[in-house]
Protein backbone atom coordinates (compact mmCIF):
# COMPACT_ATOMS: atom_id res chain seq x y z
CA UNK A 1 0.00 0.00 0.00
CA UNK A 2 1.42 3.37 -1.04
CA UNK A 3 1.42 6.43 1.22
CA UNK A 4 -1.45 7.88 -0.80
CA UNK A 5 -3.44 4.64 -0.51
CA UNK A 6 -2.72 4.57 3.20
CA UNK A 7 -3.84 8.18 3.69
CA UNK A 8 -7.14 7.54 1.93
CA UNK A 9 -7.68 4.28 3.78
CA UNK A 10 -7.04 6.07 7.07
CA UNK A 11 -9.85 8.52 6.33
CA UNK A 12 -12.13 5.70 5.23
CA UNK A 13 -11.46 3.83 8.47
CA UNK A 14 -12.40 7.02 10.32
CA UNK A 15 -15.71 7.17 8.46
CA UNK A 16 -14.93 10.26 6.42
CA UNK A 17 -13.47 11.29 3.10
CA UNK A 18 -10.03 12.58 2.16
CA UNK A 19 -9.34 16.29 1.80
CA UNK A 20 -6.69 16.97 -0.84
CA UNK A 21 -5.34 20.51 -0.98
CA UNK A 22 -3.52 22.08 -3.91
CA UNK A 23 -1.04 24.95 -3.86
CA UNK A 24 1.51 26.13 -6.44
CA UNK A 25 5.19 25.95 -5.53
CA UNK A 26 6.89 29.33 -5.30
CA UNK A 27 3.81 31.45 -4.59
CA UNK A 28 4.08 34.07 -3.32
CA UNK A 29 7.70 33.01 -2.82
CA UNK A 30 9.41 29.67 -2.26
CA UNK A 31 9.76 29.93 1.52
CA UNK A 32 6.14 30.99 2.01
CA UNK A 33 4.88 28.27 -0.33
CA UNK A 34 6.67 25.66 1.80
CA UNK A 35 5.14 27.09 4.97
CA UNK A 36 1.76 27.18 3.23
CA UNK A 37 1.87 23.48 2.38
CA UNK A 38 2.77 22.68 5.99
CA UNK A 39 -0.14 24.90 7.07
CA UNK A 40 -2.46 22.71 4.99
CA UNK A 41 -1.22 19.61 6.79
CA UNK A 42 -1.62 21.23 10.19
CA UNK A 43 -5.22 22.25 9.52
CA UNK A 44 -6.91 19.16 8.13
CA UNK A 45 -5.56 18.31 4.69
CA UNK A 46 -4.92 14.57 4.22
CA UNK A 47 -2.88 14.77 1.00
CA UNK A 48 -0.92 17.77 -0.25
CA UNK A 49 -0.92 18.47 -3.98
CA UNK A 50 1.88 20.74 -5.22
CA UNK A 51 1.83 22.39 -8.62
CA UNK A 52 5.14 23.46 -10.16
CA UNK A 53 4.55 26.62 -12.24
CA UNK A 54 4.36 26.15 -15.99
CA UNK A 55 4.29 28.68 -18.82
CA UNK A 56 1.28 27.15 -20.60
CA UNK A 57 -1.18 26.03 -17.90
CA UNK A 58 -4.06 24.87 -20.10
CA UNK A 59 -6.08 23.37 -17.22
CA UNK A 60 -5.66 26.19 -14.71
CA UNK A 61 -8.22 28.87 -13.99
CA UNK A 62 -7.41 32.55 -13.55
CA UNK A 63 -6.56 32.50 -9.82
CA UNK A 64 -4.08 29.64 -10.18
CA UNK A 65 -2.68 31.04 -13.44
CA UNK A 66 -1.96 34.36 -11.75
CA UNK A 67 -0.24 32.61 -8.85
CA UNK A 68 1.92 30.39 -11.04
CA UNK A 69 2.86 33.26 -13.33
CA UNK A 70 3.91 35.26 -10.27
CA UNK A 71 6.06 32.33 -9.15
CA UNK A 72 7.72 32.14 -12.56
CA UNK A 73 8.31 35.89 -12.54
CA UNK A 74 9.95 35.49 -9.12
CA UNK A 75 12.44 33.04 -10.64
CA UNK A 76 11.01 29.58 -9.91
CA UNK A 77 13.32 26.79 -11.09
CA UNK A 78 12.58 23.07 -11.21
CA UNK A 79 15.08 22.39 -8.44
CA UNK A 80 12.83 24.51 -6.20
CA UNK A 81 10.13 21.85 -6.48
CA UNK A 82 12.36 19.18 -4.97
CA UNK A 83 13.59 21.59 -2.30
CA UNK A 84 9.97 22.30 -1.36
CA UNK A 85 8.98 18.62 -1.27
CA UNK A 86 12.01 17.80 0.86
CA UNK A 87 11.26 20.51 3.42
CA UNK A 88 7.53 19.77 3.54
CA UNK A 89 7.97 16.03 4.00
CA UNK A 90 10.55 16.67 6.72
CA UNK A 91 7.92 18.65 8.63
CA UNK A 92 4.83 16.47 8.14
CA UNK A 93 3.81 12.87 7.46
CA UNK A 94 1.05 13.98 5.09
CA UNK A 95 1.94 12.58 1.65
CA UNK A 96 2.89 15.05 -1.07
CA UNK A 97 1.95 14.46 -4.70
CA UNK A 98 2.97 16.72 -7.56
CA UNK A 99 0.47 17.83 -10.20
CA UNK A 100 2.54 18.61 -13.24
CA UNK A 101 2.14 19.13 -16.94
CA UNK A 102 4.16 16.58 -18.87
CA UNK A 103 6.53 18.78 -20.86
CA UNK A 104 8.61 19.86 -17.82
CA UNK A 105 9.01 16.19 -16.83
CA UNK A 106 10.21 15.31 -20.32
CA UNK A 107 12.64 18.21 -20.34
CA UNK A 108 14.02 17.24 -16.94
CA UNK A 109 14.20 13.55 -17.83
CA UNK A 110 11.53 11.08 -16.72
CA UNK A 111 13.81 8.79 -14.72
CA UNK A 112 15.76 11.68 -13.22
CA UNK A 113 12.49 13.39 -12.23
CA UNK A 114 11.18 10.22 -10.60
CA UNK A 115 14.43 9.60 -8.74
CA UNK A 116 14.69 13.20 -7.49
CA UNK A 117 11.05 13.25 -6.40
CA UNK A 118 11.48 9.98 -4.52
CA UNK A 119 14.68 11.21 -2.87
CA UNK A 120 12.89 14.37 -1.75
CA UNK A 121 10.14 12.34 -0.10
CA UNK A 122 7.42 12.79 -2.73
CA UNK A 123 4.64 10.23 -3.10
CA UNK A 124 3.71 10.46 -6.78
CA UNK A 125 2.57 12.48 -9.76
CA UNK A 126 -0.77 13.68 -11.08
CA UNK A 127 -0.38 14.11 -14.83
CA UNK A 128 -3.32 16.02 -16.33
CA UNK A 129 -2.12 16.23 -19.94
CA UNK A 130 -0.76 12.76 -20.66
CA UNK A 131 -2.78 9.60 -21.17
CA UNK A 132 -1.69 6.14 -20.02
CA UNK A 133 -0.93 4.85 -23.50
CA UNK A 134 1.49 7.76 -24.02
CA UNK A 135 3.13 7.37 -20.63
CA UNK A 136 5.13 4.15 -20.94
CA UNK A 137 8.34 5.77 -19.66
CA UNK A 138 6.56 7.24 -16.65
CA UNK A 139 4.72 4.00 -15.86
CA UNK A 140 8.05 2.15 -15.92
CA UNK A 141 9.71 4.78 -13.71
CA UNK A 142 6.83 4.76 -11.23
CA UNK A 143 6.89 0.98 -10.99
CA UNK A 144 10.64 1.10 -10.38
CA UNK A 145 10.43 3.80 -7.70
CA UNK A 146 7.07 3.00 -6.12
CA UNK A 147 5.73 6.48 -6.84
CA UNK A 148 2.00 6.72 -7.46
CA UNK A 149 0.81 7.58 -10.96
CA UNK A 150 -2.49 9.42 -10.91
CA UNK A 151 -4.28 9.83 -14.23
CA UNK A 152 -7.42 11.85 -14.93
CA UNK A 153 -10.89 10.66 -15.86
CA UNK A 154 -13.41 13.09 -17.34
CA UNK A 155 -17.19 12.95 -17.81
CA UNK A 156 -16.57 12.64 -21.55
CA UNK A 157 -14.30 9.58 -21.16
CA UNK A 158 -15.41 6.44 -22.97
CA UNK A 159 -15.69 3.13 -21.15
CA UNK A 160 -12.53 2.00 -22.93
CA UNK A 161 -10.69 5.08 -21.65
CA UNK A 162 -11.96 4.55 -18.10
CA UNK A 163 -10.83 0.93 -18.18
CA UNK A 164 -7.32 2.02 -19.22
CA UNK A 165 -7.19 4.76 -16.58
CA UNK A 166 -8.42 2.34 -13.92
CA UNK A 167 -5.76 -0.25 -14.78
CA UNK A 168 -2.95 2.31 -15.08
CA UNK A 169 -3.57 4.53 -12.05
CA UNK A 170 -2.31 3.97 -8.53
CA UNK A 171 -3.12 5.95 -5.39
CA UNK A 172 -6.36 7.37 -6.77
CA UNK A 173 -8.02 8.45 -9.99
CA UNK A 174 -8.36 12.21 -10.34
CA UNK A 175 -12.04 12.45 -11.20
CA UNK A 176 -12.85 15.65 -13.08
CA UNK A 177 -16.13 17.05 -11.77
CA UNK A 178 -17.04 18.98 -14.88
CA UNK A 179 -15.63 19.90 -18.24
CA UNK A 180 -13.47 23.03 -18.25
CA UNK A 181 -10.68 24.67 -16.28
CA UNK A 182 -10.14 24.90 -12.52
CA UNK A 183 -11.98 27.48 -10.47
CA UNK A 184 -14.75 28.02 -7.96
CA UNK A 185 -18.31 27.12 -8.96
CA UNK A 186 -21.64 27.66 -7.28
CA UNK A 187 -22.67 24.05 -7.86
CA UNK A 188 -21.14 20.83 -9.09
CA UNK A 189 -22.35 18.80 -12.03
CA UNK A 190 -24.27 15.56 -11.64
CA UNK A 191 -21.66 14.34 -14.12
CA UNK A 192 -19.17 13.87 -11.27
CA UNK A 193 -21.45 11.46 -9.40
CA UNK A 194 -22.12 9.52 -12.60
CA UNK A 195 -18.41 9.39 -13.45
CA UNK A 196 -17.49 8.00 -10.03
CA UNK A 197 -20.13 5.30 -10.43
CA UNK A 198 -18.67 4.41 -13.84
CA UNK A 199 -15.18 4.23 -12.35
CA UNK A 200 -16.47 1.88 -9.65
CA UNK A 201 -17.74 -0.39 -12.43
CA UNK A 202 -14.16 -0.52 -13.73
CA UNK A 203 -12.79 -1.50 -10.32
CA UNK A 204 -11.54 1.85 -9.04
CA UNK A 205 -11.30 1.88 -5.25
CA UNK A 206 -10.10 5.46 -4.77
CA UNK A 207 -11.87 8.14 -6.80
CA UNK A 208 -11.16 11.72 -5.73
CA UNK A 209 -13.10 14.56 -7.31
CA UNK A 210 -11.57 17.87 -8.31
CA UNK A 211 -12.32 21.11 -10.19
CA UNK A 212 -14.90 23.55 -8.89
CA UNK A 213 -14.90 22.54 -5.22
CA UNK A 214 -14.59 25.55 -2.92
CA UNK A 215 -16.87 25.12 0.13
CA UNK A 216 -17.28 22.68 3.00
CA UNK A 217 -20.80 21.90 1.79
CA UNK A 218 -19.48 21.00 -1.66
CA UNK A 219 -16.85 18.75 -0.07
CA UNK A 220 -19.55 17.03 1.99
CA UNK A 221 -21.63 16.51 -1.15
CA UNK A 222 -18.70 14.96 -3.00
CA UNK A 223 -17.71 12.74 -0.09
CA UNK A 224 -21.21 11.28 -0.13
CA UNK A 225 -20.25 9.28 -3.24
CA UNK A 226 -16.46 9.64 -3.69
CA UNK A 227 -13.39 8.94 -1.58
CA UNK A 228 -11.92 12.41 -1.55
CA UNK A 229 -12.36 16.03 -2.60
CA UNK A 230 -9.65 18.16 -4.18
CA UNK A 231 -9.58 21.91 -3.54
CA UNK A 232 -7.22 24.36 -5.18
CA UNK A 233 -8.54 27.78 -6.13
CA UNK A 234 -10.12 28.59 -2.75
CA UNK A 235 -6.83 27.81 -1.00
CA UNK A 236 -4.70 29.75 -3.46
CA UNK A 237 -7.05 32.72 -3.17
CA UNK A 238 -6.85 32.62 0.63
CA UNK A 239 -3.06 32.52 0.59
CA UNK A 240 -2.86 35.37 -1.88
CA UNK A 241 -5.40 37.57 -0.12
CA UNK A 242 -4.59 36.94 3.53
CA UNK A 243 -1.34 34.99 3.81
CA UNK A 244 -0.79 32.00 6.07
CA UNK A 245 -3.40 32.97 8.74
CA UNK A 246 -6.17 33.20 6.14
CA UNK A 247 -5.02 29.94 4.55
CA UNK A 248 -5.19 28.19 7.93
CA UNK A 249 -8.72 29.49 8.55
CA UNK A 250 -10.01 28.48 5.12
CA UNK A 251 -8.37 25.05 5.37
CA UNK A 252 -10.00 24.35 8.75
CA UNK A 253 -13.38 25.48 7.44
CA UNK A 254 -13.09 23.24 4.37
CA UNK A 255 -11.96 20.26 6.44
CA UNK A 256 -15.26 20.45 8.29
CA UNK A 257 -16.90 19.05 5.16
CA UNK A 258 -15.06 15.71 5.23
CA UNK A 259 -16.99 13.81 7.96
CA UNK A 260 -19.64 12.26 5.75
CA UNK A 261 -20.90 8.80 4.91
CA UNK A 262 -18.52 7.38 2.32
CA UNK A 263 -20.20 5.43 -0.44
CA UNK A 264 -19.83 1.69 -0.08
CA UNK A 265 -17.69 -0.05 -2.69
CA UNK A 266 -19.48 -3.33 -2.24
CA UNK A 267 -21.93 -4.00 -5.02
SSE sequence, one letter per element: HEHEHHEHHEHEEHEHEHEH
Query: Rounded to an integer, what's the Rg over CA atoms?
Result: 17 Å
Number of H/I helices: 11
Compute the number of strand runs: 9
Q: Note poorly predicted spans.
A: 179-187, 261-267
Strand percentage: 5-15%
What is the first-to-last residue Cα distance? 23 Å
Summarize the biggest pleated sheet. 9 strands, parallel
Shape: globular
Query: Kindly state the mean pLDDT as a whole number?
Result: 91
- Which structural category do the helix and sheet elements fall into? alpha/beta
**Spatial strand sequence of the major β-sheet:** 5-4-3-2-1-9-8-7-6
Q: Give helix % range.
A: 40-55%
Quick gist of this model?
The chain has 267 residues and is an alpha/beta fold. 49% of the residues lie in helices and 13% in strands.
Describe the structure.
This protein is of the alpha/beta class and 267 residues long. It is built from 11 helices and 9 strands. A 9-stranded parallel sheet has the order 5-4-3-2-1-9-8-7-6. Helix 2 links the parallel strand 1 and strand 2.
Topology:
Layout: H1 3-13, E1 18-24, H2 30-42, E2 47-51, H3 62-73, H4 78-91, E3 96-99, H5 102-108, H6 110-120, E4 124-126, H7 136-145, E5 148-150, E6 152-153, H8 159-168, E7 173-176, H9 190-201, E8 207-210, H10 216-223, E9 228-231, H11 233-255
Parallel strand pairs: 1-2, 1-9, 2-3, 3-4, 4-5, 6-7, 7-8, 8-9
Helix pairs in contact: 2-4, 2-11, 4-6, 6-7
